[in-house]
Amino acid sequence: MTAGSSGRDTPQEHLRFAAWLQALHQVPDDDELTLVAEVLQDPDVAMAQGAVLRHLDQRASTLIHGPDYAPWTQAMAGAVASRPFLLQCLHEWSLFRAITLGQPWSHWLQLKIAGSPGTREDAAVLAQAGRTKRIRNTARAAVTAATRRAGIDDKTTPGTHVGPT
What we know:
Blueprint: H1 12-26, H2 32-39, H3 45-63, H4 69-79, H5 84-100, H6 107-115, H7 120-129, H8 133-150
Helix pairs in contact: 1-3, 3-5, 4-5, 6-7, 6-8, 7-8
């Protein structure tokens, strides 16, 4: 649609997308979950999910540093539970929050990362800063194994500390 055009030529899903975004932007907190559920009932699944995703991103970025974030994500997770992609995005926002706020990662997550076939850099962070000796040793073993697989003969691990201490 060009400036000054009437909207007659704009596809209906584009108009609904804009209307949903406007409604989500203006919704009072008490009505947010109801409106999200309503948006997700739109017949155009991709458009509806896109509108809710944009809303989730805007709300999460606004709430991320405050005390209202955790209860909001719990409530929102219930509202989007039938949409795995949206649920995954909420989980990723929570992980992003934990990392950016310097919150400790769970023992389970550290151990999973340390023992997974990820990159040397992933394991190197935990080799130096893992919560427990077991996590640090598991990560060191993973770095050593990855180094051998890559044919790299260095005795150092990447030393930039980017994880929790």
